[in-house]
Amino acid sequence: MFKILILQAWYDLSDEALEKQIARDLMFRRFIDLSLSENVPDHSSIWRFRQLLNTEKLLEPLLEQINNHLEQNSIIVSLGLINIIDATVIEAKQSRKRKGKHGNNTQDHEAAYNVKTAADGKRKTTYGFKMHANTDEDGFVKKNDVYPWQCA
Fold it and tell me: Which of 63, 68, 101, 147 maximizes the CB count within 10 A of its CB?
């Protein structure tokens, strides 16, 4: 039930709207560990639970503890915003070991190998980097990072 109150705060929903959202949104059900065969708590149950926490003076300390945990882990929750994270493969310019003018290796030493299994079942090896992009639902890039793959 407390997870339901967290969703309510994050999405700024009334008790009635929250009940409807839980009934139709699989992401909400998964977050609160509610299977499709289980009944959705009605709006009055949500209200009574919140009132009980308020009466016992537990709601504010619990929410503060959750916020502190999120902050310590650098997680930012923004009301009504969607974050889309995608990874793109970037092949290194010098992916093969070759000798340069002075006999040194010209292969990009910051890159690493990645093995990916394609939809057709074939394995593809790429030497390079992986770029992670965080965008909103309109495609505005909020942040991106480039990482070499970890060698397996």
Answer: 63
